[in-house]
Write a structure and sequence with these properties.
mainly alpha; 71% helix; Farnesyl Diphosphate Synthase; 2 strands; 308 residues
């Protein structure tokens, strides 16, 4: 993580701290569970993508003479509600993914998962509370003041679609159904070395990619992206999101799930595919100068194992 990413992560953490209810506020147990799920976070990749997309768009506006007073700092402040909302949705999804009815995981980031630390009922409620909080942040008075009413409303729509049955929740449902099918004694291997690639791609694009795509689009919308800019950044987000899942699968090749890229393509093939996706993601940024989209380039290279 480079210096920019570390600095932005600190700003994101501070904003998340302000957005979340205090642990001392009743119901205390629920608020402790919510904060436990959000802090300490991971690398905050989704918020960083939202802020980086906003910077690329905002800098381009500045170069055209229609920029923001305050430069990069003003752009980041304007897009921060998007970054916070995306991370709250992500945190909610991790709580529910870890539940016994889903992935049944006992640990995340070296700590007991929320349902192990607080019980299943409070874990479910913590996830249920984080999801609407994300939309409260994104549609609230501060977001409307910073982004404008139209941009805030558009961002709400983006994140809602990415979270629902045609996005993240739908991807999780596909994953569950596929896992049940593969566990049946009469089931085969799903066709050709574990799973057909297009099925794995579809799963990745929904379960993982939809929120990443929304993070990029929301950040761009916050900074007033024009249609051509939004199209370019959307393509970047789609390619980055799929690549993110490829490399996530490669980090856990011991997983016996069949709906993974290494299982469908082999480890070497999956790594080459991930690298190609990231190269195409960077190519999608050709509308922007290197300095305008510097952070988006750096995030792509970091995901592929380069130095960001």
């Amino acid at each position: 993580m480079n210096e920019w990413a570390r600095r932005m992560k600190c700003l994101v953490d501070e904003a998340l701290d302000r957005a979340l209810p205090l642990e001392s506020a009743p119901p205390e147990a629920l608020h402790r569970a919510m904060r436990y799920a959000v802090f300490p976070g991971g690398k905050r990749v989704r918020p960083l993508l939202a802020l980086a997309a906003a910077l690329a768009t905002g800098r381009r506006r500045c170069a055209a003479g229609g920029g923001f007073d305050g430069g990069d700092e003003a752009i980041v402040r304007r897009a921060m509600p998007c970054a916070i909302a995306v991370e709250l949705v992500h945190s909610y999804s991790l709580i529910h993914d870890d539940l016994p009815a889903m992935d049944d995981d006992d640990f995340r980031r070296g700590r007991p998962t929320v349902h192990r630390a607080f019980g299943e009922a409070l874990a479910i409620l913590a996830g249920d509370a984080l999801l609407p909080l994300a939309f409260e942040v994104l549609s609230g008075e501060e977001a409307r003041r910073l982004m404008g009413f139209e941009a805030a409303a558009s961002a709400v729509g983006e994140l809602a679609r990415a979270s629902g049955s045609l996005g993240m929740a739908g991807g999780q449902a596909i994953d569950i159904v596929a896992a049940k099918r593969m566990n049946r004694p009469e089931a085969g291997d799903g066709g050709g070395n574990g799973a057909r690639l297009h099925e794995v791609e579809r799963l990745a694009d929904l379960k993982t990619g939809a929120i990443i795509r929304a993070a990029v689009r929301c950040g761009a919308i916050a900074a007033g992206a024009r249609p051509d800019e939004l199209d370019a950044l959307t393509r970047y987000g789609e390619l980055f999101g799929r690549a993110f899942q490829v490399f996530d699968d490669l980090d856990d090749v011991a997983d016996d799930g069949v709906q993974t890229f290494p299982h469908a393509m082999g480890v070497a093939g999956a790594r080459q595919y991930g690298e190609r996706l990231l190269a195409e993601a960077e190519e999608a940024l050709s509308l922007f100068t290197t300095s305008e989209a510097a952070e988006l380039h750096a995030l792509a290279r970091a995901l592929g194992g380069g130095v960001a």
